[in-house]
Design a protein that fits this description.
single chain, 445 residues, alpha/beta, Rossmann fold, UDP-N-acetylmuramoyl-L-alanine:D-glutamate ligase, Protein-Tyrosine Phosphatase, Chain A, 6-stranded parallel beta sheet, 36% helix, peptidoglycan synthesis, cell division, ATP-binding
């Protein structure tokens, strides 16, 4: 009898995992508590995969030999509790896909900057002529690509949720950009649980593999001592320090990688701002470890187009700049956004709070922000923290209201910044939906 695989959740990750399982000859069943999008229904139907949506038929799930869980489903979900009681193994789509490919895996995680670094790394590798796929939190499902394509390399953005159910998977190159509090609601409000999830990116690495990380992150440097890492270490830092493999000096990025040194002037980088220096360093080291030519790396760093919803310039209206940073779903992301601002700011904040500590941005807010527009169902925590720290603070219950109020507050030469610090699910479908609505409202001004 064929081994039975049940896939929970039929988004990009789940639908892709189901196709790979089917192609590999498993008996496959897909179950999603929400309604499955038409595109994914069509994909499942094309491969003649049985599916259900709007419910979980528990008897059809509990007869699985193995369960592939979409990253968005928390361990506290009743269906997961039932599966755990039965002792059925639960893995992630990435773990499953890794079993069926010998491609080199370049894996990137961090609380912030991972999408930008993933897309930049992919851009450099692709432009250098490598046969490379883009997967994980961006791009197409890794499992679907393993089932239907034939890449030699994959650049994969991994969230802590994806790392949680990865066990034997190995990153040939692992990148850890930073660790700051995020998603604590999913980790029992225990920071160490979240840190442990992030460090799973280094598991199973051998002396032939590379681990690239930010040397000045206090959490990472403390954790390094607790982990017996086998991989070659490639720390990067803003300043030249002992042992670091990338740093800035005389307005240049310097990459001291194996056999060679690469330099590029900071002004030549497509991505500006301090945090983007780190993203550029991490991507450059990855490329150097893969022996990509210096000219190709420089070229990729110069002509990369940024990431949508991440410090994305939308328009200038009557001298007021509007910037969409909807992807800033935690406080540290907003810190980076404010840190890169060169004008006074009208800040649009708020959404579903994940246990945020706003003291991290307090000084930058006092220094740069003239007004805060709170855009959320419940803004009481924002008012409690920021009242009296900015000249003006008010509420909005829709994106149009938020943009109109921000524009009314803004003086010529100032910037309206949407950098919410929070998840979007109280008023919007996703951070993308929130960013699209922002752009639409700005264009209608």
């Amino acid at each position: 009898m064929n081994k039975r695989i049940v896939v929970l959740g039929a988004g990009e990750s789940g639908a892709g995992a189901a196709v790979l399982a089917k192609v590999k000859g498993f008996d496959v069943f897909v179950s999603d508590m929400s309604l499955i999008k038409d595109t994914y229904k069509a994909l499942l139907n094309k491969y003649e995969i049985e599916w259900e949506d709007g419910r979980h038929s528990i008897e059809k799930i509990l007869n699985a030999d193995e369960i592939i869980k979409s990253p968005g489903i928390p361990d506290t979900a009743p269906v997961i509790r039932e599966i755990q009681k039965e002792g059925i193994p639960i893995i992630s789509e990435i773990e499953f896909a890794g079993r069926y490919t010998h491609a080199k895996m370049i894996c990137i995680t961090g609380s912030n900057g991972k999408t930008t670094t993933t897309l930049l790394t992919y851009h450099i590798l692709k432009n250098a002529g490598l046969n490379v796929g883009l997967a994980g939190n961006v791009g197409k499902s890794l499992a679907l690509q393993v089932a239907t394509e034939n890449f030699d390399y994959y650049v994969i953005e991994l969230s802590s949720f994806q790392l949680d159910n990865m066990y034997k998977f190995k990153a040939d190159i692992a990148v850890l950009l930073n660790i700051t509090p995020d998603h604590l609601d999913r980790y029992g409000y225990d920071m160490q649980n979240y840190i442990n999830a992030k460090f799973r990116i280094t598991q199973n690495q051998t002396p032939n593999d590379a681990f690239i990380y930010w040397n000045d992150d206090p959490i990472i440097t403390k954790e390094l001592k607790a982990h017996d890492l086998k991989a070659r270490l490639y720390p990067f830092s803003e300043e030249k320090e002992e042992g670091v493999k990338a740093y800035t000096e005389n307005n240049q990025i310097v990459i001291d990688a194996p056999n060679d040194t690469l330099t590029i002037t900071e002004d030549d980088l497509a991505l500006q701002g301090r945090h983007n220096l780190y993203n550029s360093m991490a991507a450059s080291i990855s490329a150097k470890v893969l022996d990509i030519k210096k000219e190709d790396i420089r070229e990729g760093l110069k002509d990369f187009k940024g990431v949508e919803h991440r410090l994305e310039k939308v328009a200038r209206v009557r001298g007021v700049e509007f910037i969409n940073d909807s992807k800033a779903t935690n406080v540290n992301s907003c810190w980076y956004a404010l840190e890169s601002m060169r004008t006074k700011v009208i800040l649009i904040l708020g959404g579903k709070d994940k246990g945020n500590d706003y003291s991290e941005i307090e000084e930058l807010v006092k220094e740069k922000v003239n007004a805060i527009i709170c855009l959320g169902v419940d803004n009481s925590k924002l008012h409690a923290f920021f009242e009296g720290k900015v000249p003006h603070i008010e509420d909005a219950s829709s994106m149009k209201e938020a943009v109109d109020k921000a524009f009314a507050c803004a003086q010529k030469g100032e910037t309206v910044l949407l950098s919410p610090c929070c998840a979007s699910f109280d008023l919007f479908k996703s951070y993308e939906d929130r960013g699209e609505q922002f752009k639409e409202c700005v264009r209608n001004l």
